[in-house]
Recover the amino acids of this structure.
């Protein structure tokens, strides 16, 4: 078998830090349960490995976006509850029941599909009903929640195990939409309860709400980004104190050359150097998830503990950095694109700020082409 780990660019995933972050979060939001959100390959960190680490550190359930993501976790030997975060096509209901997944339902059509699949194998299956309190993406309208709950209650094959919602502006805790959504959610829960509809699992919070807003916690919090040690947003920095980024992107210098003052590097020859400079080539690029436009914002990588600026357009498979007059850099030296080296740390959130995006998109974008090493 080919050993992809020999490539001179890789990702380090520190599973000890998944445990560290999960334990901190679980303690801060106790007695609310942590359900680890491991969709999109655990935000690029590796779903099975992260799930096992999170469950070891106190998470009691998992959340994914897709049935195939959940099946991969079951194939990896994971038996914890796995919640699907939105209603899935009716054609997947059989797999949902077969693999003992927790379906989210928002429509009677979706609930019926699960009921039919459950009846076929003679089982009663627990589902969670999603309510749209203002995000306006998926979920049943509050005014239709009772009818859907009664439809679920009337099926001999379904059991209402959860009721939940999701905040649109959780990363700005002071935004009035948070309080409005929370109020609408609790009003809807009260209305349902007055008709005898209750469920053991009530949840609303993602990382940002769970860490900043105690009355958003209910029985479960769906924790994603904070478990990976990244910020939900700049306004949540204080609440994330003590959390450490889990992913680090590393490489080795693969080529070196001196260029003269007035010369430039990479496609477009966009930026000339002012003095004779040593240019180090790093063998990864935008096909690996390094944003092409990163060079425009004078982003640096670390080599031998010193920041070195990306000095030309990031190409598909390689990028170049300016080592100035420092002739000590040699082929094979370790490069940190994000992570720590010496006294410096660069985080995916730093890249996100430079690229006008969020840390979520940076880590999810580190492509499968790069080997993940678990440390
Ligand atoms: C992705 C997702 C989460 C996790 O959000 P974080 O900000 O990463 O904690 C929680 N709930 C739902 C519905 C999601 O889609």
């Amino acid at each position: 078998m080919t050993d992809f780990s020999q490539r001179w660019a890789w990702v380090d995933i520190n599973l000890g830090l998944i445990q560290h972050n999960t334990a901190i979060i679980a303690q801060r939001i106790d007695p609310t349960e942590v359900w680890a959100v491991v969709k999109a390959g655990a935000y690029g960190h590796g779903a099975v490995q992260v799930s096992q680490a999170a469950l070891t550190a106190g998470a009691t359930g998992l959340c994914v976006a897709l049935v195939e993501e959940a099946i991969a976790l079951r194939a990896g030997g994971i038996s914890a509850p796995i919640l699907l975060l939105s209603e899935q096509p009716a054609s997947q209901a059989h797999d949902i029941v077969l693999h003992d997944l927790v379906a989210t339902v928002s429509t009677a059509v979706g609930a019926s599909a699960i009921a039919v699949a459950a009846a076929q194998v003679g089982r009663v299956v627990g589902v969670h009903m999603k309510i749209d309190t203002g995000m306006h993406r998926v979920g049943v309208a509050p005014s239709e929640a009772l009818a859907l709950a009664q439809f679920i209650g009337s099926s001999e094959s379904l059991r209402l195990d959860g009721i939940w919602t999701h905040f649109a502006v959780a990363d700005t805790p002071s935004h009035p939409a948070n309080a409005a959504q929370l109020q609408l959610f609790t009003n809807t829960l009260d209305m349902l309860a007055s008709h005898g509809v209750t469920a053991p699992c009530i949840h609303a919070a993602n990382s940002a709400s769970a860490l900043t807003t105690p009355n958003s916690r209910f029985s479960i919090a769906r924790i994603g980004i904070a478990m990976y040690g990244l910020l939900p947003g700049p306004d949540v920095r204080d609440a994330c104190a003590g959390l450490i980024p889990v992913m680090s992107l590393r490489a080795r210098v693969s080529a070196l050359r001196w260029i003269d003052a007035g010369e430039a590097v990479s496609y477009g020859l966009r930026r000339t150097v002012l003095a004779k400079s040593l240019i180090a080539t790093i063998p990864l690029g935008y096909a690996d998830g390094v944003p092409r436009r990163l060079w425009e914002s004078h982003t640096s990588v670390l080599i031998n503990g010193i920041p070195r600026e990306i000095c030309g357009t990031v190409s598909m498979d390689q990028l170049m950095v300016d080592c100035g007059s420092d002739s000590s850099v040699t082929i094979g030296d370790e490069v940190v694109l994000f992570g720590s080296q010496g006294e410096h740390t660069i985080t995916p959130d730093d890249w996100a700020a430079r690229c006008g995006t969020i840390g979520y998109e940076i880590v999810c974008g580190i492509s499968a082409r790069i080997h993940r090493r678990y440390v």
Summary: The two ends are 22 Å apart (CA to CA). The chain has two domains: 15-239, 247-374.
